[in-house]
């Protein structure tokens, strides 16, 4: 075997270098195997048309207004799917031996989950475009100015980044890919307990409290506000009445909890 | 000349809940040699490899890999080892080429693309280099796994059951690769359930049983430890006892009688016992001999004798399932 020349390990900042390599891996992986991406991105479009035209017809809100209300909700609900995709990919890597192979390499411990989460955000950003286009076709508009729209997209991706870390941690915990799939499937209930699809004003008291303290509600309200699709509701819980600050706070809390948990879990393995 | 050890562990212990998977593993693998780690299921082979490759932290004991402390210098250890096992696999969604480039990059190989191509060529994977790894045949997949652990030419290579489930041709290719690596000076620690594999590849064998190394030595030494198997087939069952008396006197070991097959057998560790001597002694005692044999031991005999056939004993469990 010819000699293999290597760079000294300390020559590049470890986390950035390894993270970039892992990011490349995830993007290549998404390109090689686009099935999951297509599935997770066609789902909200189907729901937009189904909810917008079928359920929307039974609501007091006019159809076009409901569809404009619905688009931010679906964007955030889709971002919350980061739990599912993060979990699924981490569980798959763990149970197929990829995680352990990477753990035997001289790779910065945070690089693997970091690469996965950043890749997920990039893929999500691209995947959001079709939903926005269909949204435009059915009556959703950016009514809050360009700056607001940029802020809305930024907040959306930050939220996705946070939910992916929840998913990575849970995926590293699961005992099998099947368990990850089932648990991941159960996350569809999270946006149902929020204001993503309906205004929370009409919910019974306790359920309304639960829904308004759901991070999805804060982020959805922030997006409706920043896109200029619907006013911030009054008399709701703090994260909803202060949606941008509330969303940022939620993301900060989720990241502060789940980033260390996921990195620790990754570094130490199952036992 | 002093021996340098590429792997040197003392008293490694690992417990999974109530199960003591390793109870004091002492292992010494000399630099540049191939060491076969043998043992029944549940003996702790996989746990041992997972500890020695930094995937698990020991509860007690210490080890040095290529001169670095396993726990305190784990990062340095990871730079110097290669690992291939059922649990340390390549990414099935990436192609072989993409996998090797990724691992080479993570190992800071200067020209990762060229290194990937070189390894694909060496392991006969060039034609399949751009197929997703998940679509490769078992033999190709295992070669890709092996190639992935060689991107930076490791000082110590750990192979956990590298040929389990492979057809003979694929197995031979892996064996050739391991021999070539040894020629190049790589130290190899391999676990296997195939005794033939250990016999052919290993310079030394560490026989594990219930979480520790029960015996070590070269295949020849271990075979000598167990001895040859002498067996006599007699014409009538009445002669069995007489034949047993002869074998007892010759070997000093207790013969085993089989009435149905009219055989009496004994394990002999006496190197001076030859077949002519055996036959003459039986004949002199008037034993109506039908057949006699003196079979040199195989590693299977060693395995069964020295581990007492303790596979999957109740308290050791299967470490692979436990860590899954």
Tell me what the structure shows:
The complex is a heterodimer of chains A (271) and B (324). Chain A has 271 residues and is mainly alpha-helical. In chain A, 73% of the residues lie in helices and 0% in strands. In chain A, helix 2 (35-55) packs antiparallel against helix 3 (63-80) and helix 6 (111-137) packs across helix 7. Chain A starts with 13 loop residues before the first helix and ends with a helix. The model of chain A has no long low-confidence stretch (mean pLDDT 89). By secondary structure, chain B is of the alpha/beta class. Chain B is built from twelve helices and 14 strands. Chain B has helices at residues 45-52, 74-80, 96-106, 112-122, 138-148, 168-183, 195-201, 219-226, 240-251, 275-284, 299-307, 319-323, and strands at residues 5-16, 19-30, 34-38, 60-65, 68-69, 81-84, 156-160, 187-192, 204-209, 212-217, 228-234, 256-258, 263-268, 289-295. In chain B, a hairpin with a 4-residue loop joins strand 12 (256-258) and strand 13 (263-268). In chain B, helix 3 (96-106) crosses helix 4, helix 5 runs parallel beside helix 6 (168-183) and helix 8 (219-226) packs across helix 11 (299-307). The longest helix of chain B is centred in the middle third of the chain and has 16 residues, at 168-183. Chain B is elongated. Classes of the chains: A mainly alpha (271), B alpha/beta (324). The A-B interface holds A 1-9, 11-12, 18, 21, 24-25, 28-29, 32-33, 93, 95-98, 100-107, 175, 268-271 and B 16, 53-57, 75, 78-79, 81, 83, 85-95, 98, 102-103, 105-111, 115, 118, 122, 132, 148, 150-153, 184, 323-324.
């Amino acid at each position: 075997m010819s000699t293999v020349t290597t760079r000294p390990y300390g020559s590049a900042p470890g986390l950035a270098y390894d993270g970039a390599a892992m990011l490349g891996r995830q993007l290549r992986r998404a390109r090689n195997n686009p099935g999951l991406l297509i599935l997770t991105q066609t789902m909200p479009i189907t729901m937009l048309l189904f909810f917008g035209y079928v359920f929307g017809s039974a609501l007091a809100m006019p159809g076009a207004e409901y569809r404009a209300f619905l688009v931010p909700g679906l964007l955030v609900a889709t971002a919350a799917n980061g739990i599912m995709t993060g979990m699924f990919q981490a569980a798959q890597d763990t149970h197929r031996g990829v995680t352990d192979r990477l753990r035997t390499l001289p790779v910065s411990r945070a690089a693997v989950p970091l690469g996965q989460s950043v890749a997920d955000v990039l893929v999500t950003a691209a995947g959001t475009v079709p939903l926005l286009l269909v949204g435009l076709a059915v009556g959703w508009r950016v009514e809050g100015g360009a700056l607001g729209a940029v802020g809305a997209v930024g907040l959306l991706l930050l939220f996705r980044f946070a939910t992916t870390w929840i998913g990575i941690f849970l995926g590293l915990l699961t005992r099998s890919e099947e368990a990850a799939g089932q648990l991941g499937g159960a996350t569809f209930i999270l946006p149902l307990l929020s204001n993503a699809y309906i205004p929370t004003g009409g919910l019974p008291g306790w359920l309304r409290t639960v829904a308004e303290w759901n991070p999805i509600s804060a982020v959805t309200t922030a997006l409706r506000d920043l896109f200029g699709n619907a006013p911030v509701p009054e008399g709701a819980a703090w994260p909803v009445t202060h949606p941008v600050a509330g969303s940022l706070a939620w993301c900060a809390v989720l990241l502060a909890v789940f980033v260390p948990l996921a990195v620790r879990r990754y570094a130490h393995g199952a036992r | 000349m002093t021996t340098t050890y590429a792997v040197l562990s003392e008293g490694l212990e690992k417990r999974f809940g109530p199960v003591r998977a390793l109870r004091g593993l002492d292992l010494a693998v000399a630099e540049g040699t191939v060491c076969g780690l043998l043992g029944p299921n549940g003996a702790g082979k996989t746990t041992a490899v997972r500890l020695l490759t930094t995937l698990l932290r020991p509860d007690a004991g210490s080890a040095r890999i290529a001169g670095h402390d396993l726990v305190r210098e784990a990062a340095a250890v990871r730079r110097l080892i290669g690992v291939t096992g059922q649990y340390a696999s390549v990414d099935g969604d990436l192609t072989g080429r993409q996998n090797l480039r990724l691992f080479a990059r993570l190992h800071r190989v200067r020209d990762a693309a060229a290194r990937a191509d070189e390894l694909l060529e060496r392991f006969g994977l060039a034609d399949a280099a751009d197929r997703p790894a998940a679509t490769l045949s078992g033999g190709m997949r295992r070669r890709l796994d092996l190639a992935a652990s060689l991107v930076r030419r490791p000082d110590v290579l750990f192979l956990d059951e590298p040929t389990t489930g492979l057809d003979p041709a694929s197995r031979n290719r892996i064996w050739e690769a391991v021999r070539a690596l040894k020629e190049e000076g790589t130290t190899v620690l391999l676990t296997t359930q195939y005794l033939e594999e250990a016999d052919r590849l290993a310079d030394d064998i560490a026989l594990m049983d219930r979480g520790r190394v029960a015996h070590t030595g070269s295949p020849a030494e271990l075979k000598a430890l167990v001895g040859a198997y002498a067996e006599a087939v007699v014409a009538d069952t009445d002669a069995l006892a007489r034949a047993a008396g002869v074998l007892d006197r010759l070997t000093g070991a207790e013969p085993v009688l089989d009435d149905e097959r009219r055989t009496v057998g004994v394990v002999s560790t006496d190197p001076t016992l030859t077949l002519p001597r055996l036959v003459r002694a039986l004949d002199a005692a008037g034993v109506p001999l039908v057949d006699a044999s003196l079979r040199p031991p195989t590693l299977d005999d060693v395995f069964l004798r020295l581990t007492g056939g303790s596979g999957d004993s109740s308290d050791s469990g299967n470490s692979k399932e436990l860590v899954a």
